[in-house]
Structures are given as C-alpha cells and as structure tokens.
Specification:
globular; TIM Barrel; about 40% helix; 9 helices; single chain
Length: about 290
Amino acid sequence: MRPVYEITVGGRRYHLGARTSVMGILNVTPDSFSNDGLRIKKPGDVRAAAERACRMAEAGADIIDIGGESTRPQAAAVSAAEEVRRVIPVVKAIAGKLRVPISVDTYKVSVARAALDAGATIINTIQGCSLGEKPEQSLLRAVRNYCAAVVLMHMRGKPRTMQKNIHYGNAVQEIYDALRRAVNICLDAGIRRDKIIIDPGIGFGKTTAHNLEIINRLDSFHQIGQPVLIGPSRKFFIGEILNAAVENRLSGTIAAVCAAVSRGAHIVRVHDVRPIVEAVRVMDSVLLEKAV
C-alpha cells in the first residue's frame, strides 16, 4: 500500500495517500493537445474559466491546476507576459472562492511570482528536474519565499523537441535518479520536505513503452520519500493503444489512472474530473477493503 504523507499547502495540512487525490486540469490556452483549452481575451472568457474551475471542484477535484502555455509535443513557447495575461485573471477570479488549492503549471519565474501573489499555492513545473541550474533565476527562490508547494516533473529536452531521439538505458532508474536529485536541490534551497511532490512525467520525452513501464513500476518512486503525482490523461500512448482520437480516450484514461492508483499514485492529474473521482473512489475502496 502507498505511504501516507502530510503536505502543507496554503497553511492547511493534507494527508496524501489516505485516499487518491484528483487534480483537475484547467487549460487557458488556444492550442491544448486535449482540445479543451479556453481562449482568454475578454472578461467573459475569465468568467467561463472560473465557472469551469468551480464545476471541477464541485465534481470532487482536490486541486485545480491552471496552465497558460501548451506543453504538447512540438509546442512553441509563449512569452511570460502572454502567460501572465492568460493565467493571472483566472487565478484572481477563483482564489478565495474555492476551498481547494490552486496550482499553476509554469516554469517561468515571473509567472510563478504573479500567480503566487494572486492566490495560487502550488507551482507545477515541467522543468522540475532542471531547476537550480541558475539559482538567481530559479523558481525555487519564489517557491521558498512564498512558502508554496512545488510539483517537480521529469522531462528531457523541451516540449518542441522532447519526443525526438528518445533513449534511456534504464528509464525508471534514470527518472528516479533525476527526481531524487531535484528533491535534494529543493531541500538545499530551503524548501521543506512537506511541500514537495514528484511526477515522473508521463508523455514528456517518453515512448509508449516507457510510459507503460513507469506506471507499472510507479511504486519504485516511493523510495524517494515524497508523494507521487501522475498525469496520463488523454495522452498519446492511450491513443496509440486504442487507436483513438483525443476526445475518445476517457476509458483508456480511467484504466491508466486505476493502474497508477494500484501502483501507489497519490495524485492523478486529469481533464475529466467527475468520472475519474468516481473511478478512484472505487479503486481506493477495493485497495482498503472498505468504502471511502
């Protein structure tokens, strides 16, 4: 059974692992791979995004994760100013209205600071295993100074190049080692252990075979000593297995999520909140042999 960790987010304590937590994805991008992105150009767009966040929370989401830049394969980067324009009005619109923590999916320091100022309490970064290379520009200082939590995700390369020339000698071991180093960098930077979550990065510089191996051996990452988040939702490997378009990958996502929960996932990051909440509730009940 997965270990239980006490995590402090926004001054509140959460016991991750007592049940599976669900992170709902709120994309405010025009080019999301999942075809669910919202364009933020006028006040009505902000209201629509806030309403979607509220529906996710009502459906059982434990965290809302807002992203303002697509990180799909071959995606082009956007400027920090554009990302702030998309993300921050939405954070402000829901901060204080929802009881669940707000996470912002970014690797840019200025975006992270603006998000934390606006009421976010978690920074979810795809560059989690390369943080600390430039301390003066690092996200770590902002995370530490704001007493925020951080999700450290593993990725090789950048979204535009990450699916080219993929090679690992031992994928799980190499990802494990990179995440362990990232955790140690955070600890050395003064971020408390109870504010660090790790993510092996399904679909980010991995083949279908790598993704399946990561899920099957997810419990290996427990040895790092931090809660494990995983995000298989609507990903390419599901489409490849099922020969299904993005909009037809819900059943495959549920299967991948249930497999990840059986291997010890603490948090699952998904687009379709209500059906996943129901699926993990049943999975948790089976694993604990009692209704949760």
